[in-house]
Amino acid sequence: MTGFATSERLFKLAQELMPGGVNSPVRAWQAVGGTPRLMVRGQGARIFDVDGNAYLDYMASWGPLILGHAHPQVVVAIERAAARGTSFGAPTPEEIELAQTLTAAVPSLEMVRLVSSGTEACMSALRLARAATGRPRVIKFDGCYHGHADSFLVAAGSGVLTHAIPGSPGVPQEIAELTISLPYNNLDAVHWAVKEYPQEIAALIVEPVAGNMGVAPPQPGFLEGLRRVCDDHGIILIFDEVITGFRVAWGGAQALYGIKPDLTCLGKIIGGGLPVGAYGGRRDLMQHMAPAGPVYQAGTLSGNPVAVAAGQATLEALQTPHTYGDLEEKGAWLARELAQAAARQNVPLTINRVGSMLTLFFTDSPVANLEDAKKSDLDRFARFFQGMLAEGVYLPPSQFEAWFVSLAHTPDDLEKTVAAARRVWSR
Ligand code: KE4
């Protein structure tokens, strides 16, 4: 490590110009303290800061970089697309190609609409569900994140309150009240909500593997139960696969668990690190979207040719017979070795993992929902984060995020990561 004086200096300047010095809050490291490192380059499994320090990267830009940084096929695709012009605001052949890839891969996608972020995808899917059902309410789960549209920026109401309360200033109470936020993995709560609000619930949106409370896999029967409740009550089931899409399986969590939602939201990996989101699903629903139907949604850069080229190149590079076996093997090895190291050093640790996404919770209790996750020792997480950073390992700066292993991480990189954790835990 060669210090971080330049990051310190530049981050002070950034804080003069941008709120908190960042363009997305979690990057400011408020949960772990210290000065965020300004990053200038990535290559494979590594990322490099402005002071010349190299880190093994498990942040992967919050998920998109499943191939690692600057994958040659992705870089060439971007260069070629950019050289032909960066945006046309018109239909392009490349959008058709990406739409074909997505609808062929994801079981529920009969039709798809490309947008520029996961937020846009989830916001639009909710508007579509409300239009298609004529109902106002939506069920989400505590600790699941679906982007920053008002209806999703809510906190669970108290036990007494059955509806959510605003999760941020600026979200009107009238909007928040239409959202019902329930404990993840709790089907009884869902049954109660549909009885409490008969014929009023348009949609139920869920991360089929939660990633935003840290990783919390669906318990056996949970997703099947959601499908059944939605079928019984005419509720649109939306899988938010912005993280899990092409991460946990080629067809996402819906392929892994064999549950077909009515609508799916995608992002992150399908843009290969450039801004692409998508929502899609049943043809009868998607035909409600303008200009085929009356439900409005639009975007200047939706389906942008350079971003679409990065996404298509990423998905093409993932289409090999061993991709997901390789990611599973790496994720399993890393989780097993970290768990053994923690046990040997009496570190209370619970690791949740699905494929190449995992979270180390500093608690020895199981984590199946947000309430469980909040039992983690956040100070111990912050110390671990800083210790690993000093060891040259770059983790997500929050206990409530996921680590991502990429195809670029080698066995030697994983061994170095476990050795670093052992040293941090021995101090
Ligand atoms: P974006 O608007 O950030 O592209 O996607 C929103 C979103 C939707 N659904 C899920 C399941 C997501 O995880 C996200 C965004 N994820 C966060 C971190 N887990 C992005 C990081 C950030 O906010 O800076």
How would you characterize this protein structure?
This protein folds into 2 domains: 5-70 and 322-426, Aspartate Aminotransferase, domain 1 (Alpha-Beta Complex), CATH 3.90.1150.10; 73-318, Aspartate Aminotransferase, domain 2 (3-Layer(aba) Sandwich), CATH 3.40.640.10. Helix content is 37%, strand content 15%. The chain is built from 14 helices and 16 strands. It has helices at 5-17, 72-83, 93-105, 118-133, 173-176, 187-196, 222-233, 253-257, 283-286, 305-318, 323-344, 370-373, 378-390, 411-426; strands spanning 39-43, 46-49, 54-57, 111-115, 137-141, 154-155, 165-166, 179-182, 201-206, 236-240, 263-266, 277-281, 350-354, 357-361, 393-394, 403-404. Strands 4-12-11-10-9-5-8 form a 7-stranded mixed sheet, with helices on both faces. Helix 6 packs parallel to helix 7 (222-233) and helix 11 runs parallel beside helix 14 (411-426). It starts with a helix and ends with a helix.
Short description:
This protein is α/β, with parallel strands linked by helices and 427 residues long. It has helices at 5-17, 72-83, 93-105, 118-133, 173-176, 187-196, 222-233, 253-257, 283-286, 305-318, 323-344, 370-373, 378-390, 411-426; strands spanning 39-43, 46-49, 54-57, 111-115, 137-141, 154-155, 165-166, 179-182, 201-206, 236-240, 263-266, 277-281, 350-354, 357-361, 393-394, 403-404.
